[in-house]
Amino acid sequence: MKIWKSKPWELRGKPYDFLRKHLASIGFVVYPTEIVIAGRGCEGPSFHPCLDVAATKDGDYYAFEFKSEREGLHDRVFEQIESYRHSFDFVIVVLERGYSRTAPYGVKPRGPLTPKSKYYSILQQTGAGLWCICGEQYVQVIEPQRQTPVEQNRTWIDEKFHRYVFKDLPFEVTDPNQRRLTLFLRKDRCENSR
Fold it and tell me: Which fold, 3-142?
């Protein structure tokens, strides 16, 4: 079980901002906004196209789905995991457990989810990881298992990171709607190198 201590002021603000800051502090490269996923194997009535936080580390892509203490874990999170596993190498659910940003002053935060929880074994079966935010610490409760994303979807995520985070285009963009953007970025880069 890994535990990361964060600074108290990092846990205030927008829900995903402190998660992004934490991920950056432990070596992840983080996508700057929510990311919209699409692709083969993702369609259907339970498809959830918006992922809270996407990040990459050591060549692998991670999907982080944030659940506040009010939301908790319920059936919807398993539909989201199923959608994200088609595009990402690892899927991790980050669960708030009553820390100072949402809890009334003086309320003691709850500890991380335990194996006795009804959702613990279901999460393990999906291969998703689980991090809990307890007090001012991130606690890795379940280590994520490698997923087998659809190659076309994984390539699309890779292109989004290279386009908007790494700011390079080492390959041809496969999404026909983005060809004009590709040409614009290449033209701009050529003009700047003169």
Answer: Trna Endonuclease; Chain: A, domain 1 (3.40.1350)
In angstroms, the CA 2 to CA 98 distance is 19
Q: 112 is written with which tokens?
A: 């991380």
Pairing status of strand 60-67 against strand 90-96: parallel
Please answer whether residues 42 and 50 qualify as being in contact, where contact means their C-beta atoms are separated by less than 8 angstroms.
Answer: no
The whole-number pLDDT of residue 1 equals 56
| 176 φ, ψ (degrees, to nearest 5) | -65, -25
Please give the C-alpha separations between residue 194 and each of 79, 154, 169, 190, 191, in angstroms, as whole numbers: 50, 34, 19, 7, 6
Please, what's the largest Cα pairwise distance for the chain?
63
The per-residue pLDDT for range 66-117, each reduced to its tens digit, is 887 777 777 688 888 988 999 999 999 998 876 545 455 555 556 667 778 8
Rg, C-alpha atoms of the chain = 18
- Rounded Cα gap, residues 27 and 158, in angstroms: 18
Return d(Cα 17, Cα 34) in angstroms, integer. 11
The answer to whether the CB of 152 falls within 8 A of the CB of 39 is: yes
The Cα angle at residue 122 between residues 85 and 33, in degrees rounded to 5: 40
Mapped onto helix, strand or coil, the DSSP state of residue 190 is: helix
Our measurement of the distance from residue 103's CA atom to the centroid of its chain's CA atoms, rounded to an integer in Å, reads: 24
Give dist(CA 140, CA 94) in Å, integer: 9
Helix (H) or strand (E) holding 146: none
